[in-house]
Amino acid sequence: MTQTTEATLLRLFIGESDEHAGRPLHEAIVLRAREMGLAGATVMRGALGYGRSSRLHTSKILRLSEDLPVVIEIVDRPERIEAFLAETEPMLGSCLVTLEAVRILRYGHDGGMS
Predict the structure, then answer these.
(1) Are 10 and 42 within 8 A, CB to CB?
(2) Is residue 113 situated within a structural domain?
(3) What CATH number does residue 83 fall under?
(4) Nearest Cα residue to 71 out of 45, 98, 97
(5) Are 12 and 88 in contact (CB under 8 A)?
(6) pTM value?
(7) What is the C-alpha to C-alpha distance for residues 2 and 101, in angstroms, rounded to an integer?
């Protein structure tokens, strides 16, 4: 049987046009996660979505949006995710942040998290 590791999945829901210190917010977040040594981060660009304002953001060619939805996922040990959130809170603005307990079945060559 595969050994599992308990971890936390952090999801940040932002807009493609969101910025921090003159750079795209998703880039600033991923670079900060890397600097802090988190296990990894993935940025996904959405084709369609809406948020608090209920305004649709879409990638349809006839309705070009300058602000498509972006989701950033980061998985690591709970205490490392909490430290990351405390460090990045000033840059997050009004984004939606979710946390989920997850089980990691495999990570890297040895299956463990650093």
Answers:
(1) no
(2) no
(3) 3.30.70.120
(4) 45
(5) no
(6) 0.83
(7) 18
